[in-house]
Amino acid sequence: MSEASDPEQTRRRRDRDPDRKGPSAWDSALRLLGVRARSRQEMRDRLTRKGFEPDVVDEVMARLEQHNLLDDEEFASEWVRSRHLNSGKGRLALRHELRTKGVDESVISEALADIDPDDEREIASGLVARKLTPSVVDRIGDDRAERDKAMRRLVGMLVRRGYSQSLAFEVVGEALSALRSG
């Protein structure tokens, strides 16, 4: 097949500015997807930032969607699952992260609905348990001031990770009560 009649060669030429050095927009998009899944908005922003013309970015976005390589619903679901289980992030942090990646609010809500409240509580409890090292437990003892300080610090840690304040207080309260009785 001659280069003139090869549609892939034609597409590559269109993707590439004749004066541009480096990979085409399509190659850049595939390379980005090779690292991790991306939201539509995230991919559009990255390609634009790399200096590709808006019409080239639009064409690459259409090709990616045609090949089912961009799917915000799948991206959000996988992001929530991964970040919740591996990083211990709570719903609020995950919602914020997905918003910054340009995912639609309805898609975010659907992905967050997959988080089981019992799993969320269990992960939060695990985070608290890791912070309650023997030295911390010894320091707290029966001292009310140390107990209050530990409560504030542990609740703050969970809230910064995106857990609701009410869940954080419940989990930390249970952990500190278990220390006192156990």
TrEMBL record:
Positions of the UniProt region annotated as Disordered: 1-25
Gene Ontology cellular-component annotations: cytoplasm
GO-annotated biological processes: regulation of DNA repair
Entry-linked InterPro entries: RecX_HTH_1st (IPR053926), RecX_HTH_2nd (IPR053924), Regulatory_RecX (IPR003783), WH-like_DNA-bd_sf (IPR036388)
Domain spans labelled RecX second three-helical: 71-112
Protein origin, superkingdom: Bacteria
Domain RecX first three-helical as annotated: residue spans: 25-64
Main location per the UniProt record: cytoplasm
Protein's cellular compartments: Cytoplasm
Family: Belongs to the RecX family.
Functional note: Modulates RecA activity.
Entry protein name: Regulatory protein RecX
Species this protein is from: Gordonia lacunae
